[in-house]
Each structure stands twice: as C-alpha cells, then as structure tokens.
Design a protein that fits this description.
Elements: E1 7-12, H1 16-22, H2 29-44, E2 50-53, H3 63-75, E3 81-85, H4 94-105, E4 109-113, E5 119-125, H5 131-135, H6 144-155, E6 159-161, H7 171-178, H8 186-196, H9 200-209, E7 227-228
Parallel strand pairs: 1-2, 1-3, 4-6
Antiparallel strand pairs: 2-7, 3-5, 4-5
C-alpha cells in the first residue's frame, strides 16, 4: 500500500452545543451543525478514511492535550499521515485536502494558516509528530502559527503553506466572510445573514463591494474513542 492510501483525515470538531460555550456568536448552534456537516462531506469526498472526534470523545485536561491525543489515536490505527481540520473554516475545499494528501505522500508537511494567528489545516507525517513537544505548543494563542511553523520546519524536510483562510470565532469573523459570500454555500450564507440580522439590501451592497477584493486571497481558523465516518 502506498503512502497516499496510508493517509487519514481527522475532523477535530466539537458538537454545536459545545461550540456555543467557546464561540462569541449567540444562537449559532444551527450554523455550527451545518459547518460540521459540510466539513465532513468535503472530507469524505476525498475518498480518504475520515475520523470525527468531537467533545464527547476527547481525552485531556486542556485543548493541547485533547488535540494531541486525538492525532495520536489516529496514528495508532496504522496510518502514516494525517490531515487534521476543524469545522469552522467555510472556505476550506475538498481540493485543499486532496492536494495536501498528495504533498504528504511526497514526504512534505503542510499547514494552512488562519487569519487569527492559528491554522485551519495541518498535514503531518507520523515520523515528525512528537507528542511531548506537540502538547507544549501555545495552543489557542495568537503566536501558535508562528511557533508551530518553526517547529515543523525543524522536524520535516519541507513545509508547504496553504492560502490564508478565515475561521469563525465571533461575529466579526462572520462579517468578514460576507465579503467573500460568492464562495460560500447558500445554506451557510443564509445562516450567517440571519445571525447578523443583515437586511437583504445591505447585504447586496456589501456583496457588490466584494468585487474590489476579488484578487485578494483573504479567507480564513484526546486516547479517545473514534467515530469513523
């Protein structure tokens, strides 16, 4: 079996109810339900084995431990490479995942930076994943992307950086997404508009202004039992 077929996707995403505890977006349970469904569909469309680890399956006392343990659990199932993503980056595409899998098969490491200083995607090989060092990274801090990039470059032969995408943590992030509404699914777009209570006329005005930014790439941001989907 070649290395491409030894690659799995890990969707590390909390339930919508748990997301409401950590995200500054009132009444957004339906939105995060839809984002999770969309993310899982994109992952499965790659044809790669996909695992979803939500808050009910995670093991650890903090985010770093839970995330590290989740990755280790997938590696323990015999995979050589893992692509790990969350559920809060609507502009993530299946093609991003397919391209990442190809780069991993070539022995490279991949990271997708998010606007908030974190990352929305990480493509790791088992031989450059160190549990102890991984747990020590500054998880959920603005310096995460910088520090994890430095660490990955020291651990791997080549680090590939994907385009910056916008993740969703608060209402400001939702407003940023509206500037690139043409690349959002209709269902997610309507949920965002509803949450922000944007009038249709104002939305169209903002949507037309997005043409001014059409050339910018500015999208955006544990051992557990595993749900195999």
């Amino acid at each position: 079996m070649n290395s491409l077929h030894k690659t799995a996707i890990l969707v590390f995403a909390n339930s919508a109810k748990e997301e409401l505890v950590h995200k500054s977006i009132p009444n957004s349970e339906q939105l995060f339900d839809k984002l999770t469904q969309s993310t899982l569909r994109k992952a499965k469309d790659t044809g790669l084995p996909t695992f979803h680890i939500s808050d009910k399956d995670q093991v650890g006392s903090n985010f770093g431990e839970r995330f590290t343990n989740a990755i280790a659990a997938v590696f323990d199932r015999g995979f050589n490479n893992i692509i790990t993503i969350g559920n809060d980056t609507p502009h993530l595409k299946t093609q991003h995942l397919k391209n990442t899998a190809k780069q991993l098969a070539l022995g490279k490491t991949i990271i997708g930076p998010s606007v908030d200083g974190g990352f929305y995607l990480l493509g790791l090989q088992k031989n450059n994943f160190d549990v102890s060092n991984f747990k020590k990274l500054p998880w959920q801090r603005y310096s995460l992307y910088s520090q994890i990039s430095t660490w990955l470059q020291s651990e791997s032969s080549e680090l590939i950086k994907l385009p910056v995408l916008q993740d969703v943590d608060n209402e400001k992030d939702l407003r940023s997404l509206l500037l690139f509404s043409k690349t959002l699914s209709t269902s997610i777009l309507l949920l965002i508009i509803g949450l922000l209570r944007v009038k249709i006329r104002l939305f169209h005005k903002r949507n037309n202004s997005a043409n001014l930014f059409s050339n910018k790439c500015f999208y955006n941001k544990g051992s557990p039992e595993i749900s195999f989907v």
